[in-house]
Amino acid sequence: LAGTVPEEERCTVERADASLTSSLFLQRFAFSRPVILRGVTDNSAFRALCTREKLLAAFGARPVRLSTANTYSYRKVDVPFQEYVEKLLEPQDPARLGSDTLYFFGDNNVTEWGPLFQRYVPPTFRIPGTSPAYSFGIAGSGSGVPFHWHGPGFSEVIFGRKRWFLYPPDKTPHFHPNETTLAWLHRTYPALPPAERPLECTLRPGEVLYFPDRWWHATLNLDTSVFISTFLG
Fold first, then answer.
1. Could you tell me which residues come within 8 angstroms of residue 224 by beta carbon, excluding any fewer than 6 positions away?
2. Which runs of consecutive H residues, i.e. helices, occur in the chain?
3. Which residues contact 118 (CB under 8 A, 6 or more apart)?
4. pLDDT for 108-152, tens place per residue?
5. Secondary structure of residue 44 in the 3-state scheme
6. Tell me, which fold does domain 15-232 have in CATH?
7. Cα distances (Å, whole numbers) of residue 84 to 19, 131, 145, 171
8. How many Å separate Cα 193 from the centre of its chain?
C-alpha cells in the first residue's frame, strides 16, 4: 500500500495567492480556518540546498533526533543523519504501529542546522503576540503524523507531496493515537459519513498551508518528502 496512496478526490481547503494582504489574512483565516497559500514566498534557493546530495554533504555525520509517529511522540532516538537517510527513510509499513515508526520532524538542532534555516523564506503573515520557530522534516512515502493539535502555524512542502486532514477544535476526529495516518486512511476514513469527513488537500512544492490554533490535523506524505513548518508560539 505504501507509495501508492492517492490524492484526495477534491481539495476542500480554501486557496489564496500573493494578492492576499496581511489584514485580510487576519480577518479571514488567522483565527477561523485553514488556507493554502501559493506564490507568497520564493524558496528556490532553499530548495536547492535540500537535495539528498546537498543535505548529506552538509549534515551527514551530524546526529538527528527521530520521533515516533504517533499522537504523543513518546520515544526519541538519536542517529546520524546519513544513517536515517540511507537506512530508515523508507515507505511506511501499513501494519506497523506509530510507536514503532521513526520519523524525522521537529527536534532540529538550530545551531547546527542554522545555516540552512537562514536561507528559508517564511510567509510574511504574522499573528500579534506570537513568534516563529522552525520545524524541518524529511520522511518516506506513506509516513505521517496522526491527529493532534497545537498552536497556529504554516507548513511548506519543499519536495514531494503531503496530504493533510483537518478538523476544527470543536470536532474531535475518530482515531487511535498509536495508529499511523496510513492505517487510519484505509480503516477509518472510508466509513466516515460525508458530514464527518475532514477538510483535506494535498500540498505540492511551493505551497504553504496555514492552520489556526487548536485545529486537529494529520499528515500523510504521498512521496518521499522534505518539508518545513513555521510554528507561531
1. 89, 138, 139, 140, 141, 159, 160
2. 22-28, 44-48, 52-59, 81-83, 110-117, 181-187
3. none
4. 887 889 999 999 999 999 999 999 999 999 999 999 999 999 999
5. helix
6. Jelly Rolls (2.60.120)
7. 40, 30, 17, 36
8. 26
